[in-house]
Amino acid sequence: MATPASARTKIACYIKREKMVKICCIGAGYVGGPTMAVIALKCPSIEVVVVDISIARIAAWNSEQLPIYEPGLEDVVKQCRGRNLFFSTEVEKHISEADIIFVSVNTPTKTQGLGAGKAANLTYWESAARMIADVSKSDKIVVEKSTVPVKTAEAIEKILNHNSNGINFQILSNPEFLAEGTAIQDLFKPDRVLIGGRETPEGQKAIKALRDIYATWVPEDRIIATNLWSAELSKLAANAILAQRISSINAMSALCEATGADVTEVAYAVSKDSRIGPKFLNASVGFGGSCFQKDILNLVYICECNGLPEVANYWKQVIKINDYQKTRFVNRVVASMFNTVSGKKIAILGFAFKKDTGDTRETPAIDVCKGLLGDKANISIYDPQVTEEQIQRDLSMNKFDWDHPIHLQPMSPTAVKEVTVTWDAYQATNGAHGICILTEWDEFKALDYQKIYDNMQKPAFIYDGRNIMDVEKLRKIGFIVYSIGKPLDAWLKDMPAVA
Ligand code: UDX
Ligand code: ADP
After folding, report:
1. CB atoms < 10 A from the CB of 86, how many?
2. C-beta separation of 82 from 40 below 8 A
3. Do the Cβ atoms of 136 and 59 come closer than 8 Å?
4. Are the C-beta atoms of residues 137 and 96 closer than 8 Å to each other?
């Protein structure tokens, strides 16, 4: 679909030149890559260049093997790459040529100094802003795409305007709400597009220029314009409230196990209240991903800095329940195996933080594996999209170190020798005492569990951290099964599992 002529004229009008609109996106990650690919697909008359300081990442975007696994992404990239979508390491050149610059760089949690363990480290954002100020020779719209703390736009505005040489920069906040695994569908049909900007005439013009791009394929009533701070805070609020729903149902799952209620039945009954609704009520071993924990920590820090300790504590609890859920899971495993997994082989099916992605950032599998390793288990891992190198890196990295450009991350210490990684579920489970299902990959439901059972030590245990298995069928085969928040197997009833 082409950009409507009216939209093109309006965008061109803002930038006062009759030429092809150029977009540059700084950061070719999980957000920048798919988002820009979809803009390029939907707006063939706009040139989109995604730049990154990582040579390897750009090379991968230009190859047959994209750097991230996302259903439908390859197809979109293939349609536009080389036409109006480009991936490049020539950061300065493309920034200087662009009319609109999206910034989608890492915003790690600080590990040192003021706000360590909570506040966002804006180093990469600041260096991107300084680069924009240094190389720009014409007016630009700068769009915040990565999730940032409230008031970041103001700080960025200051950096740009103090170094501007008379160039006009308009800052917009346009947080991305896509979820991994469904990114392309989310981008094609977003629930909403949020654009925050200054309430000045120039700010409003910039909002309109960006709105006109999205209006090419997003219905107008789904494009919301707000002030800058509302847009920034809305992203943190949306993620905190989504995570809160998961922690709420996970808290209920512990109570279900204690009382004999079934969390799936409880969630279903609750979800039928149209004020609550059915989504994000699946009890699990815990939520993961690059956003939820980080964004809540950010929110907590902002509350504390604004003298709101009660509000900070309220949100902290969402993370505490998530940690509790992971510990509770490990305790169930260890307690049911006669209180020790020392020297026992435990198979881990699924390492990614959810299905349909190879992303392992903050995956609950890291804490579960570390818990089992702490009890001296030997673990054997299979995930259809995660490499051995990634798993070893995740298991030996310090908390929060994952959120830096890959070539700046600390070197991985030596591999954890009690961990093996295979590309085959049957090999991973062969000779194991127990199986932990930590990601809800569809293929795990279709495995031959009779064959798996026959090749395991007895008694053979399955711990379903995603509630995807047909428990009755597994029990018939002979497995002792633990599912989150479900009536307990007789075997587990007498085992203490307090986290
Ligand atoms: C999230 C937000 O959904 C998205 O809008 C935002 O832009 C980025 O953060 P993402 O982290 O990609 O997206 O995945 P999401 O689908 O939200 O899942 C997050 C975690 O919660 C996963 O580990 C998932 O397995 C878990 N989850 C999700 C549950 O445990 N139960 C549920 O009911 C839903
Ligand atoms: P997200 O999930 O938010 O997309 P990623 O970590 O996947 O985050 O992507 C961020 C990307 O930004 C990384 O590929 C990193 O190399 C890149 N990056 C960080 N700082 C800069 C910079 N100053 N210039 C260009 N690219 C950068």
Report:
1. 21
2. no
3. no
4. yes
Q: What is the pLDDT of residues 60-75, one digit of tens each?
A: 999 999 999 999 999 9
Q: What is the rounded CA–CA span in Å between residue 448 and residue 446?
A: 7
pLDDT tens figures, 450-459:
999 999 999 9
Strand partners, 143: 102, 172
φ/ψ of residue 44, rounded to 5 = -60, -20
Helix (H) or strand (E) holding 222: none
Q: What is the DSSP string of 108-121?
A: PBP-SSTTTTTSB-
Q: Is 379 in the pocket of ligand 2 (CB under 6 A)?
A: no
Q: What is the pLDDT of residue 17?
A: 46
CA of 474 to the centre of ligand 1 (A): 28
- At 361, is the secondary structure helix, strand, or coil? coil
> According to the model, what pLDDT value does residue 498 have?
60
- The helix/strand/coil state of 278 is coil
Of all residues in the chain, the percent with pLDDT exceeding 70 is: 95
- Residue nearest atom 16 in ligand 2 by C-alpha distance: 405
> Which residue is associated with the tokens 């940032």?
148
Buried b or exposed e, range 181-213, using 16+ CB within 10 angstroms: bebbebbeebeebbbbbbeeeebebbbbbbbbb
- Model pLDDT, residue 13: 46
d(CA 33, CA 51): 10
Which of these is catalytic: 43, 291, 303, 436?
291
Domains and CATH numbers, the chain: 5-218 (3.40.50.720), 239-493 (3.40.50.720)
CA dist., res. 161 & res. 145, Å (int):
20
Expressed in angstroms and rounded, the spacing between residue 124 Cα and the centre of ligand 1 is: 25
pLDDT tens for 361-414 read: 999 999 999 999 999 999 999 999 999 999 999 999 998 898 999 878 777 667
| Residue reference for tokens 């259809």 | 384
Q: Which residue in the block uniquely carries the two structure tokens 């890492």?
A: 106
| Contact partners, residue 257, CB within 8 Å, separation at least 6 | 485, 486, 487, 488, 497
